[in-house]
Amino acid sequence: ASARAYAKGLVACARIGGPSILQALEASPQERSTLMDHYRKQEAANRATETRRRGWVQTVAIPGLARTKFFAGCSEAFLQDIALTLSEAQRGAGETLAVIGKETTAMLVILSGTVE
Q: Angle 22-24-27 (CA atoms, 0-180°, nearest 5)?
């Protein structure tokens, strides 16, 4: 999984190591069930997100890549390797997707919809 700061503003975060949590739980064992409830809920949400992502890769990303001239004829295994690294983004009507002449380090592939 990844965590990224948004383009606007700073992000302040605290990294909590496992030993710190264990030490705090030893001092306050009554908090264990609360933390475990939160953990289980987050774990279920993460599984649901992963399931949706895998479905998107199989039903949208791989077929979309295969339809492009650039990736036409490539094996499904290769396309899956590419698809697993994709960052999915949706844009509304009138939003700029890319600027001609602006240097980039990525390729933009339109998987659905139309652009001009």
A: 110
pLDDT in tens, 27-38: 999 999 999 999
Please report, for residues 3, 6, 20, 105, the alpha-carbon distance to residue 65 in angstroms, rounded to integers and kept in the order given: 25, 27, 45, 18
Closest CA to 83 of 68, 98, 61: 61
Q: CB neighbours of 74 closer than 8 A, spacing ≥ 6?
A: 65, 66
Residue 2 has pLDDT above 70, yes or no: no
Neighbours of 79 (CB within 10 A): 19
